[in-house]
Structure formats: C-alpha cells, structure tokens
Specification:
Structural class: alpha/beta
CATH architecture: Roll
Shape: globular
Order of helices and strands: EHEEEHEHEEE
CATH superfamily: 2,3-Dihydroxybiphenyl 1,2-Dioxygenase, domain 1
CATH class: Alpha Beta
Number of strands: 8
Helix content: 10-25%
Largest sheet: 4 strands, mixed
Number of helices: 3
Strand content: 25-35%
Strand order of the largest sheet: 1-4-3-2
Radius of gyration: 16 Å
Length: about 140
C-alpha cells in the first residue's frame, strides 16, 4: 500500500497571528485563512494550521483534544533549506513576527549540517537544516 498524499494538521490559538508569522518568516505571502484553516503547500507535504476549535472538530472524532506545545515539544518539524543564509534569515525574522528562535544556528556535530531552530507563535518547533556538502562530494 502506498500513501497518496500527506497532510500535517496543527492546532493554533490565533490564526491571524499565525498567518502573519508564516507569511513573513516562511515566505508564504499568498496564504489565507479559510474556515479557520491556513493551508501551506510544502514540498511533499500539506500543512494545515487549524484554529483550535476547528482542529478539535477532527481530533475529537478519535477521542483526542487539541494541545498546543509548550517548552516540552511534542514533535520537531525538520526541513532542509537551500542556503545557510536562509536558515539565518528565518532565525532573525521569527521573533519579529511573533515566534522565537531559541539560539543561533551552528554546525551539528552529528550530521554536519548547519542547523537552527524556530518556534511559531504557538510553540510548534521547526528545525531548519542546510546540509553541508560532504568532503568527498
């Protein structure tokens, strides 16, 4: 069996604030809020940022509520970036648009990639990685 498409749904507390963050930090200027949902088409993934009540209209069908992350991240969304500069620019922009960047980007000793982290206004944690070319490439 093959999966045809993948959608990641995340609850958000203030869709307008979230929309501003993803427009300005992640570069989705045309994103809109429709029926309490912001849809972002990422490479090989659709991200649905859903107002908490809208999220619960789905999650309660499975007996679950909507929980926003706090300092204990329930997950990390990791993505590869095209340049080191893109990583740095997103870390710089996040705090100006309601999110946070809990440190500076640095080379990850385990992977060798240039890695930084940002949180959106609701605390969803993103790992931004520029994979450094290997010495043998």
């Amino acid at each position: 069996m093959k999966i045809k498409t993948t959608v990641l749904c995340l609850p958000v507390s203030d869709p307008s604030r979230t929309l501003s963050f993803y427009r300005n930090v992640f570069g989705y200027p045309d994103a809109q809020i429709e029926d309490g949902i912001i849809v972002l088409e990422l490479p090989n993934l659709s991200l649905f940022l859903m107002e908490r009540g809208e999220f619960e209209s789905y999650s309660k069908k499975a007996g679950r509520g909507a929980q926003l992350p706090n300092e204990n991240a329930g997950m990390v969304i990791s993505c590869a970036m095209e340049t080191k500069g893109a990583v740095d620019a997103m870390l710089e922009a996040a705090p100006r648009h309601g999110g946070s960047a809990p440190g500076k980007a640095a080379i990850d000793e385990a992977s060798g990639g240039y890695t930084g982290y940002v949180c959106d206004p609701d605390g969803h944690l993103w790992e931004l990685v520029f994979p450094e070319p290997t010495q043998n490439s």
